[in-house]
């Protein structure tokens, strides 16, 4: 196991400890899965049964999930002294969101190919923009982010 993977595993362990304490405080049930994907630690809270309780930790548009991810990253940084890029998913929200974004990106690619004009997508967070950029690149077109957070968005460009 490389040093980087060991470091990412350690990040995941610290994050899992933090999140387990949080779940205990909130009196919520959930299992925590730790993995390393695309060069970053990934921590997921998954439901034992129905995930209604956990969905409260996501929020309507994922804003609670984003805040918890930031807090978890800060907990990891406090423990390790290093900035963390870990990804947090709760009740498979990001997995589902990733698929919806990929479909939106594919539709934008088709629209650009058909019209020959650039297409701007709605404002997205960094995770969402990365998903779109990856799908556009895979389709053989290019894209760029424009605007300032929180109104930063992706523009799909003709070839």
TrEMBL record:
InterPro entries: Jag_KH (IPR038008), KH_dom-like_a/b (IPR015946), KhpB (IPR039247), R3H_dom (IPR001374), R3H_dom_sf (IPR036867), R3H_KhpB (IPR034079)
Pfam families to which the protein is assigned, alphabetical: R3H
Residue stretches making up the R3H domain: 95-159
GO molecular function, one term: RNA binding
Superkingdom of the organism of origin: Bacteria
Name of the protein this chain belongs to: SpoIIIJ-associated protein
